[in-house]
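Can you give me the bound-state structure? Components:
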Amino acid sequence: MNIQFKKGVIELCLLSLLSKKDYLGYELVRELCDNFKLLEGSIYPLLRRLINEGYLDTFMTEPEDGSPKKYYRITSKGIEARKTLLDQWNNLTTRINNLIKEDCYNE
Amino acid sequence: MNRYEYLEKIDQLLITLPYDERREIMYDYEEHFKEALKDGKTEEEIIIALGSPEKIASQYATKLTVVDKAKPEQPNNHVKKPIPKRPVKKGNGPVEIILLLFVAIIVGSILLGPYLGLWGIVIAFFVCGIVFVFLGFTLLLSSIVSVPISFISLPFLFEYPVLLFAGSIALICIGGLILIATYYIVKALCYMTYYLIQWFIKLVRGY
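Here's the bound-state model for the whole set.
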């Protein structure tokens, strides 16, 4: 899988996860890296960039039982970006699926 | 490598980033270690799963996300853009100057003759004009007074005083026109000379 495409897919996954709820950084790493073969160290830079683009922001919680934790949450701009990526993804997969179906006629 | 060496290495590699950003980034990795150790992983496993410090640090240097490919790049202050160099004004070195002067002397001595000739023509025009005007006035005077001026020996003209009169006026006019023309030619020649010298100086200097 080409590296730009992979990055785009991971972005879509991250934004989709965060559109459902807020996550710890580590939780996001676990979700993605347990399902796909990824270097865990590639997630944090991506999160950083999404923050810089304004799609995510962070907040700290102060639970009584432990140290403050940093959570990631999606912004309205991030929700829009997710929609764009999702459209691109659907567009691509529809076209690929059509191509694949056509192949079957030769068998 | 242990956890502290690993984190220290990443921190070092990110040294070009602004302090706040670096702190935020390092916080993420410190937290990651804490959570992963709680999960039961060993430091070594965590380090392997994260990847090399170099690989991690390099990912903070790139700028664009996939979504914003159309947007112009946001300037990231840790990536130095090459400063466009202004073209440096270079004059001619001493060698070029000597060579050019040498060529100039040769060409100049060839062109000097014709140039002086031009000025000679100008002077001739000028003298011509003066003489015509002077002569004209003199003849005019003599036609009015009807007395032949001693140094002019044009006997046939005095038979026809009207001709003398008209002729003298014509002479004055022609003389005047010649003088006016001379004035403009001199002006043009001076300008030409001035710009020629300027061009020559620039040529020798090299800029």
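A couple of observations. The interface with chain B takes residues 4, 7-8, 11, 24-26, 29, 33, 39-42, 44-50, 52-53, 55, 69-70, 81, 84-85 of chain A (CB under 8 Å). Chain A is about 65% helix and 15% strand.
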